[in-house]
Amino acid sequence: MNELRLGPILIRNRFLISIYNFVENRLGIKEILDLEVFYKLAPSYLGIFSCFGGITFFMFTLQVVTGILLLVYYVPTTAQAYDSVVHITNNVPFGWLIRGIHHWGANIMIITVFIHMGKIYFHGIYKNPRELNWVTGIVLLICTLSFSFTGYLLPWTQLSYWATVVGTEIPSAMPVIGDYIKIFLRGGADVSQITLTRFFAVHIMVLPAAVIMFIVLHIIMIRRQGISGPL
Amino acid sequence: MSDEIIKEEVSGKDRRSFLNLSIFISFAVAIGGALYPVIKYLLPADSTKGTEGGETFFISADEIPVGSAKLVRYKNRPTIIIRTKENEVYALSAVCTHLGCIVKWHEDAKELLCPCHAARFDLYGNVLGGPAPKPLPAYKAAVEEDRILIREA
Lengths: 231, 153
Known about the structure:
A: 69% helix; B: alpha+beta; Rieske Iron-sulfur Protein; 6-stranded antiparallel sheet; elongated
């Protein structure tokens, strides 16, 4: 076999063909590739607003990549957090770019999430049989907003410190359990090093793991049910 | 007519191969453009350049009291300066010749001990024991007025 046709792609390179054949003989990927990738047609009724789920997913991957890069230089201590962020921005080559993408990407992701959600809401796509997908979407929304809240504290600026003081003060308005929630979020009576450490842990480990799990569920359900038709 | 098409394909100069090449180049430029900042970010310029080691190095004598040692960078390598008496100083490479750990001065035993596998060296770098295969490179060191000078032996 001298050429391999995968949908619109024609491969003539013998080495690439032999790699493909190796995998195909063992896993039988041709069926899945044809069905899910190469001959899967997007419905003609999809418009620009149908793209925002995918755009949000792209923004998330961008946040993961830039977040990992920031993690290389960021120091999560009250003494050094601000200095390390300043160091990233001013001294590390392209640090301004990586931090800028993470900062603005976070803002843009919130916008794309709400456009995506508005499309699903106003077109009634959340209705039967897609209720479960709406529920996973709401979990992802809560995770995204928690990302914003926890990430905001990490540079340890005046703005982020007081925003966290105010934000963690809000649950204490609840009767009986309010103060316990506040102390649980802060890890003590005040916003301190403990708060920074737990916000950091939630921001870089807990939320990414949760979001990846729910994105997988979200996409499996879309693939199972197909994209909803027009109104 | 059909002969011409076959000829063009054989020489690899048909429209398809040109377009394929264009796509390949566009992808290469896009991926390269995204990777360049990331690689520069992960390899900051100021950490790859060390202090350019001049042939002589000096440090204020106050920084190393008698009976103590200090780790400095000389010729961009970790170097240990040991001051045994008011006017007696020794300078050695601090990189153990066994597996590259940084040796420490033990004032009570009057010897350098590697914390990794217990190689021992004397003030001139000679191996006293342990797994080190070679002595530590020694430099010339002297106290001149209020400074300690190191130069190549």
